[in-house]
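Sequence, please.
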């Protein structure tokens, strides 16, 4: 089907993709088999080869299974960027369960919703956040509480004394270097990350495939409590693969990962896309312009997905002249408009064309993106691979030259529970995502236009 935006389409790319009929876990397993000794993650100088990431994820998956996690169970994942977040993400998938990513800025009152709504019985978090989850859990009725919590310390993932650890802002030291005591979990058990990994437990069979639920991210772009967006392995696999191909990624890419992995962009367009490709992720726990400048220079970063304000902040650093950005080949992002003057400076000073895009939690990251081959400044781009966007009359759904916008989404439905109105709670361990609402919902859950699922 020809669409008007196809005249801007990169000639090197098809309009849609044949998605692998495998799970997201297989992407890590395949990259580890292909590149066992290649760096998958770099974090404060600590290098994790692909084979080690797979091994650690399998050890944690075996522990999750031993703690009772079964196919389709939802597991909370509440962390800022660190290697443990990526390892836990893939461990949950390998345990045939569903990742429920949580914004680490949420406090106890908000966290109660993320425990109750997905009916989660296990959470994985960092020591600085574990107390908040425990407080939320204590305020819930006994039958709605967590049964287990696995807690890591940031220093479980790196050695702060390593010679190549790089700079650490003073404001980060108390946060990253502290060893927090494990809290009490009312009605449940708490286990340290290192103890969770220290096992020779059997791995369960890999039972999930393309149509099984993989991730349940919550969107705040709605009225009332945040709603869970149901993404199967298939939709995230498509966007990970498409993001890699769209951005000309190769296994030799070195990507700066600073956008948060609890957010759909960091999770899909950066984490999953690079693991699919077999690239290297140079990880930052949060944004700091001088840490970013040092990492780009030291690790010869080639790809950087960001928020435009990060670029503006980096360019304004008094140390900027000392940083070497010559390795950068691809830069882009979203979340806010890139000022044209800044985009023009990148082009003139570094020959970098900033690629803007737009996406939603409901679309598992991009719905629109500029072709990297010929991006246009001050433009969100064209519909992404396998996506379509039209201007329609909201009453007749007929295509119009102007009117309401509609985007096809890869979200397969809205998560529904007793808390959100289905009136009943399914069995604790469904064999399929049984709490999807009976009919598909609009991408923002706020109207009556049916949502179409992307292919």
């Amino acid at each position: 089907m020809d669409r008007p935006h196809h005249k801007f389409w990169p000639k090197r790319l098809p309009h849609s993709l044949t998605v692998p009929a495998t799970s997201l876990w297989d992407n890590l397993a395949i990259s580890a088999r292909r590149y066992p000794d290649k760096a998958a993650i770099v974090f404060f100088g600590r290098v994790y080869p692909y084979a080690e990431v797979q091994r650690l994820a399998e050890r944690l998956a075996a522990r999750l299974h031993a703690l009772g996690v079964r196919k389709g169970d939802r597991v909370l994942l509440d962390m800022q960027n660190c290697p443990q977040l990526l390892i836990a993400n893939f461990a949950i998938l390998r345990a045939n369960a569903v990742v429920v990513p949580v914004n680490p800025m949420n406090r106890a009152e908000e966290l109660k919703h993320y425990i109750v709504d997905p009916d989660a019985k296990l959470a994985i978090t960092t020591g600085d956040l574990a107390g908040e989850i425990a407080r939320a859990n204590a305020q819930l009725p006994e039958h709605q509480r967590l049964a287990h919590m696995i807690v890591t310390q940031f220093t479980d993932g790196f050695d702060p004394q390593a010679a190549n650890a790089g700079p650490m802002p003073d404001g980060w030291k108390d946060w990253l270097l502290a060893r927090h005591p494990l809290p009490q979990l009312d009605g449940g058990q708490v286990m340290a990350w290192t103890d969770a990994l220290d096992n020779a437990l059997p791995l369960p069979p890999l039972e999930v495939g393309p149509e099984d639920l993989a991730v349940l991210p919550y969107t705040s772009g709605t009225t009332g409590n945040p709603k869970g967006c149901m993404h199967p392995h298939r939709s995230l696999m498509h966007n990970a693969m498409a993001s890699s191909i769209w951005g000309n990624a190769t296994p030799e890419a070195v990507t700066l990962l600073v956008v948060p992995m609890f957010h759909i962009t960091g999770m899909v367009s950066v984490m999953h896309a690079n693991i699919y490709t077999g690239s290297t992720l140079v990880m930052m726990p949060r944004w700091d312009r001088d840490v970013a400048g040092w990492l780009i220079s030291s690790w010869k970063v080639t790809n950087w997905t960001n928020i435009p304000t990060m670029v503006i902040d980096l360019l304004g650093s008094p140390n900027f002249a000392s940083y070497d950005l010559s390795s950068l080949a691809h830069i882009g992002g979203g979340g806010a408009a890139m000022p044209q003057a800044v985009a023009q400076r990148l082009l003139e000073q570094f020959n970098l064309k900033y690629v803007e895009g737009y996406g939603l939690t409901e679309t598992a990251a991009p719905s629109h993106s500029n072709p990297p081959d010929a991006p246009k400044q001050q433009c969100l781009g064209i519909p992404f691979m396998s996506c379509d966007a039209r201007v329609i009359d909201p009453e007749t759904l007929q295509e119009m030259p102007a009117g309401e916008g509609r985007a096809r989404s890869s979200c397969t439905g809205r998560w529904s529970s007793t808390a959100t109105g289905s009136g009943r709670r399914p069995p604790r361990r469904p064999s399929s995502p049984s709490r999807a609402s009976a009919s598909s919902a609009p991408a923002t859950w706020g109207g009556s236009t049916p949502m179409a699922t992307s292919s």
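The chain has a mean pLDDT of 88.
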